[in-house]
Amino acid sequence: MNRQQRRAAAKQPETVAPQKLEAVKQGQLLFGLGRYAEALECFNAFEKHNPNIAPLYQTRGLCLQRLGRFAEAQADFERSIALNPLEAETHKNLGTLHARLGRMEQALACIDRALAIRPNFSAALTEKARALWSLQLLDEAFAAFHQALAVDPGNPHTIWNLALLQMLTGDFERGWRGREARWNASLGLVDRGLSQALWLRDRPIDGKTILLHADEALGDSIQFARYVPMVAALGARVILEVKPAVQRLLADVPGVAMCIDRSAVTSLAFDLHCPLGSLPLAFGTRLDTIPFADAYLPAAPVARVKTWQDRLDSRLGPRNRMRVGLAWSGDPAHNNDHNRSMALRTLAPLFESDDAQFVSLQKGVRVQDRAFLAERADIVDLTEQLTDFSDTAALIFCLDLVIAVDTSVVHLAGALGVPVWTMLPFNPDWRWLLNRDDSPWYQSMRLFRQPTRGDWESVVDSVRCELERQVFAWRPEREPALLLPAE
Question: How many CB atoms sit inside 10 A of residue 244's CB?
């Protein structure tokens, strides 16, 4: 740091009057409530009369980042650093933003500046570990996580992140335990405040009623529903609570006595409870003991499958081409959506095949994809008629193959035992592990991975080549009898 920067930093406390900081706190209050647009208005109004206050730009930068206005957020962080170069928190925040945008070298440089100012800055050490992880420098990432925990041993955010890396590398024993820190890691998960005891297979449940409740996304509910029969086999009556979109789908899982959504819980009596995401911990799941990897969801009702078969036939005519389902993007609100989703036009090389008929499974088509989808007569889109995941399951049973990015659709196809190819980013979610093209969670799944960050082109090319081989081997007479449920 040069003399001018040290002078600016030394003057900083004198430039921030108490009444000015109080005004900033009003915006911070709105920010804490998740009302980012309102908070931004407060910060903007304050800036007009107080343009040289470093904490304002740091906090407004965080607000802009939450609103997805990344260039403006970066400008605010840099402005805050110019006003006060000795604030380690701002350097860390700028590093986190660079990491969010995939600029890992810049991210590490910013985080290292934060650590030069505060060597025992636990949050910065955790962010450094995450950045190293993103570069798949895993030994260095583990070391940084352990260094962060040496400074702040009970930090739930660090414990949770370390657990994800442990599971990604196959260390489920420690990973499941550490993953329980998610309840205190500021992830938006809400403590249900249930008066009944938490069950982690630590007591007999024969003759008891247990509530198994969804705690994360739809894909997680589908993935962990495989444990319901195991709980029921211990003698418990199982009430399964999930979101409405998968309620009809999961109601017929063996062992489910009642399937409800959250609104119905208060009127029910039960003895114990367990989040679905904690069941792998309760059963001590290892890579070699994952249950029901072949399939565990009941087949869709015959009548519903036939309805979808008729809809496809009416649009496509005789079944003389391989039918392939597609999903190319997930929930935009997901914190890793920028890595796992792609634009539909990225899949264009697949559409060169004359022997494959593509069927959209994509709900919530994004604005940038609508025009391209409308131009593609070779992609059948009946998704407006999909009312929930039970309908999607019936449609999937009418297909020969599903190709999708990491969304709930791949969990659904895998849980049904339908062939599914999952396209993964360079840094995948923990459940897909590393350096393998199969999944221990779903035997019918193949994995196609980015060789480098952001390289979807290579993934799509690999999928295209494999699809060409599959199409060549496919014959119309191979009607998907193995998929169509029996009467």
Answer: 12
- Entry pTM: 0.89
Place of tokens 């938490």: 198
Render pLDDT for 178-207 as a digit per residue (tens, 0 to 9).
999 999 988 878 778 899 999 999 999 999
Q: Give the pair of three-digit tokens for residue 431.
A: 């459940």
The values of phi and psi at residue 441, to 5°, are -85, -30
Residue 26 has which token pair?
């009003």
- C-alpha–C-alpha distance, residues 185 and 182, integer Å: 5
Structural domain boundaries in the chain: 3-131, 197-289, 302-473
CATH no. of 3-131:
1.25.40.10
**Residue numbers of the chain with a pLDDT score lower than 70:** 1-24, 475-487
CB 355 within 8 A of CB 471: yes
Decide if 3-131 and 197-289 have a common fold. no
197-289: CATH architecture:
3-Layer(aba) Sandwich (3.40)
Alpha helices by DSSP H, 286-434: 302-316, 337-340, 367-375, 389-396, 408-416
**How many whole angstroms separate alpha carbon 52 and alpha carbon 17?**
12
Residue with tokens 């029901």: 292
CA-nearest of 268, 283, 251, 335 to 66 is 335
Look at domain 302-473 and name its CATH class.
alpha beta
Q: Please give the single-letter amino acid code of residue 171.
A: D
Answer whether 168's CB lies under 8 Å from 433's CB: yes
Q: What is the pLDDT of residue 476?
A: 59
User: Residue 210's Cα: distance from chain center in Å?
Assistant: 27
